[in-house]
Specification:
Blueprint: H1 14-86, E1 89-90, H2 93-140, E2 145-148, H3 152-155, E3 160-169, E4 172-178, E5 181-187, E6 191-199, E7 208-213, E8 217-218, E9 228-229, E10 235-243, E11 246-249, E12 252-254, E13 258-262, E14 279-280
Parallel strand pairs: 1-4
Antiparallel strand pairs: 2-7, 3-6, 4-5, 7-10, 8-9, 10-13, 10-14, 11-12
Length: 281
């Protein structure tokens, strides 16, 4: 007895599987493009934030170097007045004391003018630091939103103030008549306090921190009909700070400030700021 075997048709079975695999391939390509674009975008924003923070801190460093030079100039003016008084021999102690007091008053007036000049330099440096950061951001990423996170006393150099940096005197020489003849005697002269610009708190830090917010991002294979979707949580931070110099050190300023990018976690004391290289998704 012959049994006829009926063959089941095989044609067309691969088409649904092929369509399903093509959908998976398209989705995987779309996800890969989205993630790679997002990481590339984040790296670009981090570079923009670094450039803005570094540029802002450069203006701060320039202001600090100028203030340090003025501090050194104040000491130089003091020495010049002291030499002018000490280079003469006065006929009496009263005459020498009068000349020393006159030189002291002149120096104090110049000292106050220099302190005012340093305050103006600090305000100008603070203004230029913020303007430069915004200008660099507009140049690198015109659509990005820049926010300066540095506290007021750091971003505006407001942590600086005038204080007594050193105490000095205006010595002079005068002549005293003695039975054996005239005798030249020294006198320490009136005391003077030299005011210079320093940090109000020596432990305070001067730094520049900013954050850049991603405006909008174009997604591949987006379900949005316009192909664009807001990425409001993509942002980057960067912190830069001047270092290497000193406003007042051993009777003079050291205008050696340079700028470096830092992490807020490495700063001591650590400011209450977002991580310098952190990000949010």
């Amino acid at each position: 007895m012959n049994v006829r075997k009926h063959s089941v048709p095989q044609a067309g079975r691969i088409i649904p599987l092929f369509a399903f695999l093509m959908i998976l391939l398209a989705l995987s390509i779309g996800i890969s493009l989205n993630l790679s674009g997002l990481f590339v975008r984040h790296a670009h924003l981090q570079t923009c934030a670094d450039a803005a923070a570094f540029s802002g801190a450069v203006e701060q460093a320039r202001g600090l170097n100028e203030i340090a030079r003025i501090n050194t100039l104040i000491v130089g003016i003091l020495r010049a007045h002291q030499i002018a008084v000490l280079s003469k021999i006065y006929p009496s102690r009263e005459a020498g004391l009068q000349a020393a007091n006159l030189a002291k008053r002149r120096f104090q007036v110049i000292n106050r003018v220099m302190i005012y000049l340093q305050k103006w330099v600090g305000r100008d440096a603070a203004l230029r630091s913020v303007e430069t950061a915004f200008a660099v951001t507009r140049q690198n990423e015109p659509r990005a939103q820049l926010t300066v996170h540095s506290p007021a006393e750091s971003s505006t150099l407001g942590s600086l103030g005038d204080r007594v940096g050193m105490a000095s005197r205006f010595p002079f020489l005068y002549v005293v008549e003695t039975p054996v003849g005239p005798l030249i005697l020294p006198d320490p002269g009136p005391a003077v306090s030299v005011r210079v610009t320093m940090k109000k708190n020596p432990a305070s830090l001067i730094f520049f921190t900013n954050g850049i917010l991603q405006p909008r991002h174009t997604w591949a294979f987006s379900w949005n009909m316009w192909g664009r979707r807001s990425v409001s949580r993509l942002r980057t931070y960067a912190t830069a700070m001047p270092h290497g110099g000193a406003l007042w050190d051993n009777g003079k300023g050291k205008p050696l400030y340079v700028v470096k990018l830092v992490r807020t976690g490495d700063m001591n004391p650590r400011p209450a700021l977002p991580d310098a290289w952190g990000y949010e998704w």
